[in-house]
Amino acid sequence: MVMVGLNSLTKLFRKTIGPRIEALGIFPSRYYLNRTLEALDVDDIDEAVRLITLARTGQQQNSRWRLVCQQVIFRCRVLASIHEKQIERIKTELELFGKAQDMRERYLSLQKTEGKAREVLRNYERRLLDQLAGSSGASPPS
Amino acid sequence: MTNARNLSIPGGLTGALLGLVAELALEEITGMEIVNGVLAVIGAGFGLVRIDQRIYEATVNLIKRVPVEPNSDYRDVLEQIDEMSLELPELRESFVKLIQAGIQAQKA
């Protein structure tokens, strides 16, 4: 019964007030770093960026924070490169099979979606690079 | 004066059975996976303590998840990793250490 209570409380916390309390940035940095790595494992980049930003509070000089932040940036770049390759593939297929109007529209729509995903990832990357530059006192990358 | 203990085996078994039924019923009603939940809690606690180990595992995992083209060799992969780790000095250093450790392990 203790197990049930513990499990229920944890789940209830994570689903209800957990995110709000987390957002206050009051937990130890290790907590946010651990949660960032969990999000990174499942490629939940949005969550990883949110959590690493929260872990940043007062931790700019922390080497662990810098390393985890760089891991998120690296994954953003890898995923963006995958989308980039997809866009290239779609472009080639569009030239080969995109003569029919409906096919052409489908390819263009796919291309647009891939482009949006790539742009979102690049924005995350830029945002984190800015934070990283701020943490080392260097000027932000162009 | 003696303290007599009255132990009842059927009573104990009934209590255990009732506890099990209550736990299963709660799992059915709430849909919560108890064992997984507890493992997650333990895992999270363990992760907080062993954060450096967790970061190391994540670094290894990052390399493993770099997509490799079917016709590319290890130099292409290294080049790709090198390109993607620009402006990321600490991560790059970790990658170098991992690669060196791998080479030394192969030699040994």
Verbal overview:
The complex is a heterodimer of chains A (142) and B (108). Chain A has helices at residues 2-15, 18-23, 29-41, 45-55, 63-97, 101-136. Chain A is built from 6 helices and no strands. Chain A starts with a helix and ends in a 6-residue tail after the last helix. Chain B contains 5 helices and no strands. Chain B is mostly helical and 108 residues long. The chains are: A mainly alpha (142), B mainly alpha (108). Chains A and B meet through helix 1, helix 3 and helix 5 of A and helix 1, helix 2, helix 3 and helix 5 of B.
Quick overview:
The complex is a heterodimer of chains A (142) and B (108). Chain A has 142 residues and is mostly helical.
**Number of contiguous helices of chain A:** 6
Beta-strand content estimate of chain B? under 5%
Shape of chain B: elongated
Euclidean distance between termini CA atoms of chain A = 56 Å
Molecular shape of chain A: elongated
Features:
heterodimer; A: 142 residues; mainly alpha; 6 helices; 0% strand; elongated; disordered C terminus; B: 108 residues
Topology record:
The complex is a heterodimer of chains A (142) and B (108).
Chain A: H1 2-15, H2 18-23, H3 29-41, H4 45-55, H5 63-97, H6 101-136
Helix pairs in contact in A: 3-4, 3-5, 4-5, 4-6, 5-6
Chain B: H1 9-30, H2 34-49, H3 51-64, H4 74-84, H5 89-107
